[in-house]
Structures are given as C-alpha cells and as structure tokens.
Specification:
The complex is a heterodimer. Chain A is mostly helical. In chain A, about 60% of the residues lie in helices and about 0% in strands. Chain A is built from five helices and no strands. Chain A has helices at about 5-10, 15-30, 50-55, 60-75, 100-115. The longest helix of chain A is centred in the middle third of the chain and has 19 residues, at about 60-75. In chain B, about 45% of the residues are buried. Chain B has a six-stranded mixed beta sheet with strand order 1-2-6-3-5-4. A five-stranded mixed beta sheet of chain B has the order 7-11-8-10-9, sandwiched between helices. Chain B has two domains: about 35-235, Cytochrome Bc1 Complex, Chain A, domain 1 (2-Layer Sandwich); about 255-445, Metalloenzyme, LuxS/M16 peptidase-like (Cytochrome Bc1 Complex, Chain A, domain 1), CATH 3.30.830. The longest helix of chain B has 20 residues, at about 140-160. Chain B has helices at about 5-20, 25-30, 75-80, 90-100, 125-135, 140-160, 165-175, 195-210, 225-235, 285-290, 305-310, 340-355, 360-380, 385-395, 405-410, 415-425, and strands spanning about 35-40, 45-50, 55-60, 105-110, 110-120, 215-220, 255-260, 265-275, 320-325, 330-335, 430-435. Chain B is globular. Classes of the chains: A mainly alpha, B alpha+beta. Chains A and B meet through helix 5 of A and helix 4 and helix 6 of B. Chain A: One of its GO terms (cellular component) is respiratory chain complex III. Chain A: Its main location: mitochondrion. Chain A: Keywords: Electron transport, Membrane, Mitochondrion, Mitochondrion inner membrane, Respiratory chain, Transport. Chain A: It is a peripheral membrane protein. Chain A: Belongs to the UQCRB/QCR7 family.
C-alpha cells in the first residue's frame, strides 16, 4: 500500500474491517467484474512503470490479461454484460499486477537513492 | 607551512598499512606459491598472503558445461551471478563495489563456474558475504533472466558464431569427447532465450545441484588464511551440505572429422588426445605444444617455432598449438586460420611437420621447456589467473597443485619422451574440424591426416 493517506487510515483500530466491508460491495457496484475484468486490469498502462510491470508478468498471466481485455471490449461494443456465471468471482479478483508495480517503484527509488550516494566515514 | 612532525607521522602510517602482515620477506621468497589449505564449516579454503594491499578472491564451483543438466545451464548460471539477492539488489552491489573501488565478475569453463572479486585487502568480509549470497540467496526471477541475463547470453552466442576459430574448437571438442567435455560450452542458440519460464526452472535447479559445500572451494590470493577461514565459516554457513548432484562419465577420446559452414571466416583445427591435468599429468604433451607453438615470443616476427616455420611461406596464415589439460583428459589442438585458398596448403605443411617430429633437435626441446616453465611460473605468480586451477584441484583431491613439482616434471622431459608422445599422436586417430567456406577447405584425407 503506497498511498500515505490509506496507510494512516488503516492504522486506526477496526478501520481495516470496516473498509473491507465497504470495499466489497463497492467493487461489485463498479461494474468491472460484470464484464469479466479484474481490478488490476484497470490500471492505466500509459505509465512506464506499469508497462514494465506488464512486461514482467509470466507468459500465461499476460495472455489471460489480453483475453479479459478483449472480452470486456466486446461487451462494451455490444452494450451488454456477461452471463452471471462468467463474472469475475471475488476470490479471482487478486492483485496480480500490483506486486510487480510495487517492486519497480522500489527499484526506481533505490536507483535514485544510490545515484546520489556518498561514502559515510 | 606544514609542521614537519605531521609529515613524518604520516609516512609510517601509510607504510604500515601496505607492509607485509606476519611473514617476513625471506619466508616469502622460499615459497612464493604456497597456499594454506583449510576447511571452514565444511567448505574448503586455500589462501596465500604476500602482504600486498589488494586481494583476489575466487569461489570455484565444480559445475562447468561438462556437468550441466540441460544445454546452457552452466552458461546461464554463471551469468546469473551477482544479480538480485534477498539481501541486496544487483544495483546496490554494483554501486557499493564502485565505492569500494573493487571489481567482480563471473565466468565458466568446461569444468568450473568461477565467481571472482578483486578488492582492497580490508574488504574481505564484504566480498565473502557478497559471493556467499550469490550462492544461497539469488532470487532467479524469470523477468530478471529476460531483462538482464538473456541479453548477455545472446551476446556471447553471437560473438561465438562470428568466430570461426571458436566454432572449429567447439566442434573439435564435441567430436573428440562426445558427451561431458564435448558438451557445448555456451548456451545452444538464441532459442534458449525464448521461453523464459522454462529456463528459469533450469537455472535455479542447476544452482541447487552445484552450489553445495563439498562442491565449492574458496580461494584467496593476498589474504591471511585465518581471516579467510573466519569469514567463510560465518557467511557460507547457509550453503547446503553435499558433494554436488552432478555426474559426468569418465572421458573417452573418440576423434573424427567435422565440417561446418560459416561465412564469418575460415579456420581449421587439428586435435589429438593429450594428457590430463593434476598429479598424473604427462609433461611431454605440454612440451610438445610449446615445441609446435606457432606463437612468437618477440615482436615483429613469426618466431622460430616449428609451426611458424611450417606456415611461414603462406601470407596471412597463422597456426597455433595449445595443450589443454582437463581433470581426466587433455586435448592438444592446432588451430590454423587465414585465407580460404591457402588454408589447405598450410594444413598440409602442419601435418608434414607433425610427421617429422621424430627428428626433433634437442635444443628445440630445451627452448620449449624454458618457455613452458616461464608460463607455468608466471601464471602461478599472477594473483587471479591461477585461482581456478587451485580451486578445481582442491575440490577433487583436497590438495593444491604444487608448482615446484610441475616445473620439475617439465624439466625432466627428454627428447625421447617428446618423440614417443609425437609418435602416439601421429599413429592414433586425429580430430579434424573445419569452419568456414567448405567449397575451399580441405578434408582430413586431403592433408594426410588419419581420422
């Protein structure tokens, strides 16, 4: 979790379970699950960090991601949603891309830090 | 103005830093190549301390291409060294090494994978830890293979494919030894790089097979043995116990002929079975290689070696003989490269020279012995050249090679021994490998070679 506001909020006792209670219905209402997408499919790929993260996905994940995008696009063109059994189930909606993004952000931060390093003595 | 006392105080300080630590100069002169062998927490170590301000550290792993479980595993694993570990990232290691003014590298041969570092003497703990981390904590992420390792493998393969000499030598090894030592040194082709997910199981799998306590040796040149033992014991504790899950059948020599088309030049290799390395080595094969040589010791001439004389009349042609001793076999190779039109004639002259070895003169053998001795001693003196051989011998026999014994064996070679060795070569089955424009290049029978 990289957002500082979210981090502070989560430290409040009981906040996490409350947010989770609200989050699940919100995700269902957002509509992406009805066209078979996962939450990480919605992350904007115009960002170079995300582009790199997508390139690091295992081959299988990459193919599945393209398939989900095309299916969702088709739904959008046809002005329809998928039959209910093809909706993304909550347990399938895992953050498969976010760990890669976090890692690249860490790498970039480390690079920036090391590029201005001086020897402590 | 400087206070005189300040300068005077400064000098002894910097001198004490560089001065030899425990041993006096006289002791060093008597055994300059002496390695102290020890065992630290199940890992074999060897160290010699000449008191110089820098240290050369090598971790030798018995896991070269002859032992590899899949084509390219050794090459891939060697290039995966010093990448991201659980403790520190590859970038951090690089930047910290820059700050310490040190160098690190990794390479592989047919026998070993070698991880090396050269640094100022006081950084020994840092680099023993860094190399131990490579063995135990490398992450082997598939995308790292695709982003960092695969391009290096591709570059190595490309360089190999554009060198007819390398191709001919590789093919010569393959037909001489078939499997094991005949395995291809590098990854097979660019195809190795396509399916990353599979390769990323091969490489960490091979790492588990070879990165084991009984299968590695830690060698330092320019560090006190006690220090090396202490840090090895501390940092190499996590390396799994074992003698390495590797197998390579005892090498057998086959020989034969191989022709390979390439448009990047022309080369030709004539090879014969040589002598294995280690204590059972037959020095006459080494002397034979120096006798044929083909390389000049002085500038601006071709030299007076037998091969230089043989191909001297063909412009642009170069013939070089070399004896490579592996742990259980050896290969005496003669590499000839040059323009395709004259390569055949040059090879014919080389074979004629080999057939005339029974009339070799004593002074030529003496000259060859002198050069062989010089090369052995200067390699033993060098801080980083000899480490792989020391490690290899330490892993297999628990002893370090004795330079004095090697030199003594070289000195003891007689003209008759050289003639006898030459006779076995000429009468035995040769290995003949050609790479280049096959329309012009000769067959073995054209140049009078049996194979």
């Amino acid at each position: 979790m990289s957002n500082p506001i979210a981090r502070t909020l989560l430290r409040v006792p009981g906040a996490k379970s409350l947010i989770n209670k609200l989050a699940e219905p919100y995700r269902n209402l957002a509509g992406y699950r009805q066209v078979g997408l996962r939450h990480d499919d919605l992350i904007d790929t115009l960002n170079p960090v995300v582009t790199k993260a997508v390139s690091r996905l295992p081959m299988r994940e990459k193919h599945d991601r393209v398939y989900r995008h095309r299916r969702a696009m088709q739904c959008s063109l046809a002005q329809t949603i998928l039959p209910k059994e093809e909706w993304t189930k909550p347990e399938e909606d895992v953050p498969y891309l976010q760990p890669y993004i976090d890692e690249i952000i860490r790498e970039n931060a480390e690079r920036a830090e090391l590029d201005s390093l001086v020897r402590a003595k | 103005m400087f206070a005189r006392s300040k300068i005077a105080r400064g000098i002894p300080q910097c001198c004490t830093k560089i001065a030899p630590q425990s041993r006096g100069l006289a002791a060093q002169a008597s055994s300059p190549f002496h390695y102290t062998v020890a065992e630290a927490g199940g890992v074999k170590t060897a160290a010699r301390d000449d008191g110089a301000p820098t240290t050369s550290l090598a971790v030798v792993v018995r896991g070269g291409s002859r032992y590899q479980s899949a084509p390219g595993a050794a090459h891939g694993l060697a290039q995966f060294a010093f990448k991201n570990t659980e403790k520190r990232s590859a970038l951090r290691l690089t930047r910290e090494t820059e700050l310490l003014g040190a160098q690190f590298s990794s390479s592989h041969s047919r026998e070993n994978i070698v991880l090396r570092a050269k640094f100022l003497r006081e950084d020994l703990p840092y680099y023993t830890e860094a190399i131990a981390d490579v063995l135990t904590k490398t992450r082997y992420r598939p995308y790292e293979f695709a982003e960092e390792v695969a391009p290096v493998l591709a570059r190595d393969i490309k360089a190999f494919e554009h060198s007819p000499v390398q191709i001919a030598l590789e093919n010569a090894h393959n037909i001489a030894f078939h499997n094991g030592l005949g395995n291809r040194l590098l990854a097979q082709s660019h195809k190795f790089l396509h399916d990353n997910s599979e390769k990323c199981e091969i490489i960490p799998g091979y790492a588990k097979q070879v990165y084991q306590k009984g299968n590695i040796a830690v060698i330092a040149s320019g560090a006190p043995s006690a220090e090396l033992e202490k840090w090895t014991k501390e940092h190499f504790a996590d390396v799994p116990v074992g003698k390495g899950d590797i197998s390579s059948a005892k090498t057998k020599y086959f020989g034969g002929e191989n022709r390979f088309y390439t448009d990047s030049g022309n080369a030709l290799v004539i090879a014969f079975p040589g002598s294995q390395g280690g204590p059972k080595a037959k020095a006459e094969f080494q002397i034979l290689a120096y006798l044929l040589s083909g390389e000049s010791a002085t500038k601006w001439n071709a030299g007076t070696s037998l091969l230089a004389q043989a191909v001297g009349q063909h412009i642009g042609l170069k013939a070089v003989a070399r004896h490579t001793a592996y742990s259980d076999a050896g290969l005496l190779t003669i590499t000839i490269e040059g323009p395709r039109e004259t390569l055949g004639k040059g090879a014919e002259a080389v074979v004629a020279t080999l057939n005339k070895l029974n009339t070799v003169k004593e002074e030529d053998v003496k000259r060859a012995i002198a050069r062989a001795k010089f090369d052995v001693l200067s390699a033993a003196e060098d801080r980083s050249v000899g480490l792989e051989l020391v490690g290899q011998s330490l892993i297999s026999s628990g002893e370090v090679p004795q330079v004095a014994a090697t030199v003594k064996a070289l000195e003891a070679v007689t003209v008759d021994a050289v003639k006898a060795a030459a006779k076995t070569l000429v009468e035995g089955r040769a290995t003949f490998s050609v790479a280049g424009d096959l329309h012009y290049l000769p067959f073995a029978s054209d140049i009078g070679l049996k194979c």
